[in-house]
Amino acid sequence: MTRNTRILMQCIYWAFVLYLLVPLFLMMLMGFKDSKFIGFPIRSWTLDWYLGVFNDTAVVQALGYSAVIAVVSTAIALFMGTWIAVALTGRSFWGRAIILGLTLLPAVIPGVISAIAFRIAARVVGMEPGMWAIIWSHAIHNVPFVVLVVMARLSTLPKSYGEAARDLGADPIITFFRVTLPYLTPAMIGGGVFCMLLSFDDFVRSFFLGGYEPTLPVLIFAKLRSGMSPEINAISTIVLVLTALLGLWAERSMRGMSKRAAND
């Protein structure tokens, strides 16, 4: 690679970084504007919009409601996705490709179509709109991502680990909990964080299957109907910071576990 090519690639990289970060930076700045209207220049600054988020009962309740849905749906998706991944990896049987295709299907269906289908299915089985309907739809939507991440990690598991455990007298269940599951933990953490962020950010399924209590994306959408304001920027910035901290924690945890697994 020539010097000019390297410079060009670096310019493209930094241009892409700016393309991603500049809108987020502007969004954060607008949360400090001492005005109800979005736009430049910012003549005076205030923290009232950010402080008001924590004093707004509706926003705090929606944040907690979304967090509960994200945690529960992620736990269900992790359980189901890990079980499916273990069942499909390293085995060849008739119908395996069909099962894998059906498992991954929720990830490629457009959100609106998926939400309509879940709404119809919920009505058929008699499930009322609300938290459990949203959890059900989010969990099914998140299972494919867990399956892909866990299968990728499971494919790198040395066969000698399982053989050594069996030589020591461990049955398949003990081998799974003592060998396979610890090896899969970094992938499960990464997949779980990704699923939590997907669930927390999901608007379409939450809108179609929600009851009277809105999730945070639905509440932001309701506020947008009356016009954009610095309050929405402040809410979005706080959520961005929280999700970034969660992502950093997950990254450090995954690296630490991977290093310990490699040393062991």
UniProtKB/TrEMBL annotation:
Residues 63-250 form the ABC transmembrane type-1 domain. This is ABC transporter permease. GO terms for cellular component: plasma membrane. The keyword RNA-binding does not apply. Its main location: membrane. The keyword Ribosomal protein does not apply. It is found in: Cell membrane. It comes from the Bacteria. CDD domains: TM_PBP2. Belongs to the binding-protein-dependent transport system permease family. CysTW subfamily. Pfam families: BPD_transp_1. SUPFAM superfamilies: MetI-like (SSF161098). Gene3D superfamilies: MetI-like. Keywords: Cell membrane, Membrane, Transmembrane, Transmembrane helix, Transport. GO terms for biological process: transmembrane transport. It is a multi-pass membrane protein. The chain crosses the membrane at residues 12-32, 62-86, 98-121, 133-154, 175-200, 232-250.
